Amino acid sequence: MASKMRLTAAERGAEVLEAAVQAFGASGYEGTKTDEIARLAGVSQPYVIRLFGTKQQLFLAAVQSVCDRIEQIFREAAEESPQLSTLGHNYERLLAEPELLLVLLHGFSASRDPAIGDAVRERFGRIYSLVRELTGASPTETREFLATGMLLTVMSAMQVIGPDAAGLPWAEELRSTLGDAK
C-alpha cells in the first residue's frame, strides 16, 4: 500500500481555499459552516481556523482568490487581443467555473458587512480598472461590458446558461443578443 504524500502547509491551505470556494459558492457566506469546508478539504475544523483565523477571513480569502482568477482570465484574453470583445469571448471560461461567479455574487450580497463590503468594492474596482487598462475602453464601454458580465453571472447562477443550463427559450434568446460578450 502506497503512503499518501504529506502536503506542505501552503499546499494544504490551497486545498482548504479551493474547498471554501466550492462551499461558499454553493451556500453563500451565511449558509456555509467552517466544518463543511473542513470536511470538503479533508482536514479538521480547528485546522481551517488555524489557517485562516475566522470564517469571515476565509470568505475574504475566497473572494480574493476568485477575483484573482477573473483578472487572470482577462489578462490572458488581452494577450490574445486587447479588445473588449476578446475579454467577453473569454467569459466562457468563467461560465465553465460557475463556483467563481457564485462566490462573487455572494460577496456582493454579503457587502453590508463592512469588512466584506470594503474588500468586494475594492476588488470590483480593480476589475473595472483592469478592463479599462487592458483594452483602452471608455468608462461607458467598460460599464456596458461589466453590465453584460453581471447579466451572464446572474443567468449562470440561475442555471439558465453554462454547463448545467436548463435550456429555456427566453434565456437562449437573451443570450443571443449579447454578441461577443457571451
UniProtKB/TrEMBL annotation:
<dbReference type="GO" id="GO:0000976">
    <property type="term" value="F:transcription cis-regulatory region binding"/>
</dbReference>
<dbReference type="InterPro" id="IPR001647">
    <property type="entry name" value="HTH_TetR"/>
</dbReference>
<protein>
    <submittedName>
        <fullName>TetR/AcrR family transcriptional regulator</fullName>
    </submittedName>
</protein>
<keyword id="KW-0238">DNA-binding</keyword>
<keyword id="KW-0805">Transcription regulation</keyword>
<dbReference type="GO" id="GO:0003700">
    <property type="term" value="F:DNA-binding transcription factor activity"/>
</dbReference>
<keyword id="KW-0804">Transcription</keyword>
<feature type="DNA-binding region" description="H-T-H motif">
    <location>
        <begin position="33"/>
        <end position="52"/>
    </location>
</feature>
<dbReference type="Pfam" id="PF00440">
    <property type="entry name" value="TetR_N"/>
</dbReference>
<feature type="domain" description="HTH tetR-type">
    <location>
        <begin position="10"/>
        <end position="70"/>
    </location>
</feature>
<dbReference type="InterPro" id="IPR009057">
    <property type="entry name" value="Homeodomain-like_sf"/>
</dbReference>
<dbReference type="InterPro" id="IPR050109">
    <property type="entry name" value="HTH-type_TetR-like_transc_reg"/>
</dbReference>
